[in-house]
């Protein structure tokens, strides 16, 4: 996966998980590039794509900010959760589990986390 897509996924995850709150100012391109040890042009591309997806927006002299659109964030969060769930189900089925067995398996998984 190209680096800029990996960066997009990381920032998107931080937004939909609540680590970056709606309206939060994000660091500059240079600061983010230094933190992730990437070229500033690569970081700029990732941020521009997130702007295109409307998860970020730029204010001329103030920098970039996370969208305040909570419905958009929740929609993306739901889609991500759905994708993870579908991937889990496909993998479990590839191991030979039936839908019923997968459903029965879940409560045990939660108990192990406690």
TrEMBL record:
GO terms for molecular function: DNA binding; DNA-binding transcription factor activity. The keyword Metal-binding does not apply. Pfam families: GntR. SUPFAM superfamilies: Winged helix' DNA-binding domain. Gene3D superfamilies: Winged helix-like DNA-binding domain superfamily/Winged helix DNA-binding domain. Keywords: DNA-binding, Transcription, Transcription regulation. Coiled coil: none annotated. Residues 1-69 form the HTH gntR-type domain. This is GntR family transcriptional regulator. The lineage of its organism: Bacteria, Bacillati, Bacillota, Clostridia, Peptostreptococcales.
């Amino acid at each position: 996966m190209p680096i800029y897509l990996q960066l997009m996924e990381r920032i998107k995850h931080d937004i939909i998980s609540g680590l970056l709150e709606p309206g939060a100012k994000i660091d500059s391109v240079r600061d983010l590039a230094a933190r992730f040890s990437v070229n500033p042009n690569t970081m700029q591309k990732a941020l521009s794509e997130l702007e295109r997806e409307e998860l970020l927006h730029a204010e001329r002299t103030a920098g970039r900010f996370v969208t305040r659109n909570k419905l958009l964030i929740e929609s993306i969060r739901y889609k991500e959760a759905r994708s993870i769930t579908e991937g889990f189900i496909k993998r479990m089925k590839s191991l030979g589990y039936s839908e019923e067995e997968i459903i029965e398996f879940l409560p045990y998984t939660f108990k192990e986390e406690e």
